[in-house]
Write a structure and sequence with these properties.
five-stranded antiparallel beta sheet; alpha+beta; 36% helix; three-stranded antiparallel beta sheet; 384 residues; 11 helices; Beta-lactamase
Length: 384
């Protein structure tokens, strides 16, 4: 056979072999992509089945986002933000976060702690006119719910015996500071036990104002919301600003009734932020990438406080708490989390940091348990 013919035949065989290999690679890649898509679709379908049956088209609802490895893998919105206007919930609908807010309040303290404030500073150092009992209460104790401060809600409601909740004037952080200055003692020796304290977080907001020289809402906006691009997140102050794309809260008493505000809804430090799942995904990214504070600086927030006998809830259940975050694991899986409960709203954030999994659920109705719903979503992403 002529040399040219042999050479051509060999080249043809090489080309055919290469084409076959390429086809196999394309097949394998296509199969893998299909499997990944199917796996993703399967997870999405499972998550959808958690939420879809709960919400009717004419009822208040919820917004949920799931983030995995820094990417959004599920966004779901269900129901109405406003029953009167029939406004549907979208990913940028703002819900009142309630105690979900506390992680932002804690971050403000950590950001203002730039030489002007120490975690070991006492109330009497920060507020020279504070009663003597404040000399034993530090910023760290306020952050970790170990201060023993009296409950402002109990003190305030006692001033209106028998009054209808809707007719009690709203109290704010400034008034709570004044209220704490009128007390002469704590409910227990500071640092001797753990007890969840809304009073402590209202006081932290006032500390931010005193040390920074700015209003708490302004500090939040300038140091957190604007830098992170959280354009529709706001610390709501009636008459001073508005909530964009606002969801109103509801309760069901044989029919849906708007139950959007209470006598404590004007308090910012313990629960006054409104936000949405799109903005909160940016917050989660900032925590993951250490945009605002380094990993070393954030370590204190994720270190459980130690008290004699261990931290326990009011029901006697052991718990772990850092700065604005619960640290209790879920089925052995390390996580940081917080819930929010207020009239007409229920919220929850679950961050499985080792798994890079975050689940955020915002509800404008008080009959759902977003913590349990988040558990069901977490089960979908059970580590292998």
């Amino acid at each position: 056979m002529p040399f040219e013919a042999v050479s051509f035949q060999r080249q043809s065989m090489k080309l055919a072999t290469s084409a076959l290999k390429f086809s196999i690679l394309i097949f394998l890649f296509t199969s893998l992509t299909t499997q990944l898509t199917l796996a993703s679709d399967s997870a999405a379908q499972q998550i959808e089945q958690v939420f879809r049956p709960l919400i009717g088209p004419s009822s208040p609802g919820l917004s949920v986002i799931v983030l995995k490895n820094g990417e959004t893998v599920f966004v779901g919105t269900y129901g109405l933000a406003n029953l009167e206007t029939r406004t549907v919930i979208t990913p940028n609908t703002d819900f009142r976060l309630a105690s979900f807010t506390k992680q932002f309040t804690a971050m403000c303290i950590m950001l203002v702690d730039d030489g002007e404030l120490s975690y070991d500073d006492t109330l009497t150092k920060i507020f020279p006119d504070f009663p003597a009992y404040g000399s034993a209460i530090t910023v760290r104790m306020l952050l970790t719910h170990t201060s023993g401060l009296k409950d402002y809600e109990d003190i305030y409601s006692a001033q209106f015996p028998g009054a209808d909740e809707g007719k009690i004037p709203q109290i704010n952080d400034v008034q709570i500071l004044a209220m704490m200055k009128q007390q002469t003692s704590t409910d227990f020796p500071p640092a001797s036990r753990w007890r969840y304290s809304n009073s402590g977080y209202a006081m932290l907001a006032m500390i931010v104002e005193k040390v920074s020289g700015k209003s708490f809402g302004t500090f939040l906006r300038e140091r957190i919301f604007v830098p992170l691009g959280m354009k529709n997140t706001v610390a709501y102050e009636k008459g001073k600003n508005e909530v964009p794309n606002r969801a109103f809260g509801y309760t069901n008493n044989s029919r849906w009734i708007q139950a959007d505000q209470s006598s404590t809804s004007a308090v910012l430090g313990d629960g006054g932020i409104y936000s949405n799942v799109e903005d909160l995904a940016k917050w989660d990214r900032a925590l993951r990438e250490h945009t605002l504070l380094s990993a070393a600086e954030m370590q204190a927030a994720f270190t459980p406080v130690k008290v004699p006998g261990g931290a326990k809830t009011e029901h006697g259940t052991p718990t772990e708490y850092g700065f604005g975050w619960f640290l209790d694991p879920y089925n052995g899986r390390k996580r940081t989390w917080h819930s929010g409960t207020t009239t007409g709203f229920r919220t929850f954030v679950d961050r499985f940091t080792d798994e890079e999994l975050t689940i955020i659920i915002l509800c404008n109705r008080d009959d759902l348990q977003p913590g349990k719903l988040a558990d069901r979503v977490a089960d979908v992403y059970q580590p292998q």
